Amino acid sequence: MITWRDTYNVGVRQIDDQHQELVHRLNDFMEACTNQKGKEKIQETLEFLKAYTVEHFRDEEKLMQSVQYPELAVHKKEHDEFVHVIDELLQQVNSQGTSILTTIKLNRTLVDWLINHIQKNDGKVGEYIKQHP
Prior knowledge:
Helices cover 81% and strands 0% of the residues.
């Protein structure tokens, strides 16, 4: 399980609330995997992520644009890559069904996203906003 830490906050309530929801969903998925129910939870998690990314990335990119964040293009590219991975996993599940490999890949993708993107890259956005209110 992942416990929300203040270091994950970027300092914008809407974005931080959305990130907390992602952690909550990730924990639900990880708990399902621990209880041998990951296959049952994967479709729901992927559907959530598909909707989440549309809203969250739009909000985050709009925020970065409003403060003229200099690394917006790079950040947006990372968002697009994440959306692509989620789309691929969803297509795989829809066409081939769930497997332990797709469950593991989704788990790894979400943990990596949380640790690397939110904490590091979104953290940079938060720091930039603090310096350029």
